[in-house]
Amino acid sequence: MTRVWKVASYNNNGYLNASAFLNNASHASESWAVSPAINLADSKKAVLAFSHAINKLSDVSTMKDMMTVWASTDYTGDVSTATWKQLVVPNYPAGTSWTFVESGDIDLTEYCGNKVYIGFKYTSTDENSGGWEVDNFTIKGDGTPMVTPGKPDTPDTPDTPAGSNLVSNGDFEAWTNSLPNNWKSASSASNAKLSQSTDAHSGQYSVCVAGGAKNQRLAYKELTLKPGTYKMSFYTKAATADGAVVDYGYVKVVDGKISGGNDYIYAKKYDKLTNTEWTAISHEFTLAEKTTVALIIAVIKNPGKDLLVDDFSLTTADGGVVDGGSTEPDQPETSTTSTYTLVNQITDGTYVLVAKTDAGYLAASPLAATYNYGYLKNPVSVTESNGTVKVSDANAFTIKKVDGGYTIQDATGYYFMNGAYNSFSRSAELPASGHIWTITVNSDKTVSIKNNEKGKTIQYDTEFTSFGAYEEIKAILPFLYKK
């Protein structure tokens, strides 16, 4: 096998996946994923960083032999004719789950003044083949994020929560009375006919979820989750050559019941599947308060054909299970929750940015502490009541009147716009330019927050589930609520 790298899903995460485990067997392979040319001609210092996950390969020394990263200045399209130098990756995952870890900074200073190619090399044997996923590929030159040539200006892939798998039997190896253990909701969330399949992504079994004239759902037993951001990940494929379409998310359960259709919170990606290969799916959601949920994978009624599911996980860096099943100890609350009130005029103070969508009200989350650029991802679902919302103060921004408009900052720094991108940059110090915003309250009480220098207005994009700033008003203008 020579071609084992692929884009792992059809959604906008777009991370890379390599695995030589096919048809329940390992296969010997060597395969490369090589970046486009990265121009470091004007840089005096540069570092590479990414996040990665490795599964089915728990020996670190074996990982370091089989999953390696290389650099070349003379690559022309054929890895065998290029000169490659291996780079030292500071951090490797545990190798027993699909939990991502940060690679740590990898020094590229010796390549400054040149163009460089980064190669991810995957190898396996007939006895040993782990899975390797790579995400959040970043190169910084002189401390400034550099965009890979040819990469479209789309939101960065989500910051990946870390942590142990919060579900049991996500590999579908344990069955009782012809049903997979734990995969039955006490509510109406479970409505699909399930059966055991030997066509597995790993191990011996997967679960076959039967399709039908209506959407059919596979649901995990109810979990009461703490406030936090969660990532559900799994592998899926169509069970037949007819193909299948899958959606996924969760449903809120109260007193063992689902009150209505609005309690189903789906990703609405509608990934199209074939029966020729497994597709890796990942989806993040954020809970603003303790919530009982059933995790759901749905077979969409059009075409309503059977699909297979395997290697399911739920991870979190800041949440956890309240009642049983948690592999992580309870974490102390890191922020308070406050009431914020809808405004019709702007004064200095603390605000949350809220978009009204078909799925409900979503409050923007600041950039993760480890990032100083990007889109505002992982919005928090909030309940709007008579012009007020209750939300964690960790979601708050400080707005202050200055000459020419307003500044916007979070606990880490000031937000400004840089270059031609629709994402934000953040600086601990007041930037020299790009940081002044004009804020206008509209007749419907939404706000137009426009960057004075770039002429771009902050909006919530439902396709990318993130806040960005765009020249055209093509998405959802937010509301401002003040503490």
Walk me through the structure.
This protein has 483 residues and is mainly β. The chain has 3 domains: 5-146, Jelly Rolls, CATH 2.60.120; 175-316, Jelly Rolls, CATH 2.60.120; 337-482, Trefoil (Acidic Fibroblast Growth Factor, subunit A) (Trefoil), CATH 2.80.10. The chain contains 1 helix and 43 strands. The strands form 10 sheets. Strands 28, 29, 30, 32, 33, 34, 35, 36 and 43 form a 9-stranded antiparallel sheet that branches. A hairpin with a 4-residue loop joins strand 41 and strand 42 (466-470).
List keywords for this structure.
483 residues, mainly beta, Jelly Rolls, Trefoil (Acidic Fibroblast Growth Factor, subunit A), 3 domains, 9-stranded antiparallel beta sheet, 7-stranded antiparallel beta sheet, 1 helix, 1% helix, flat
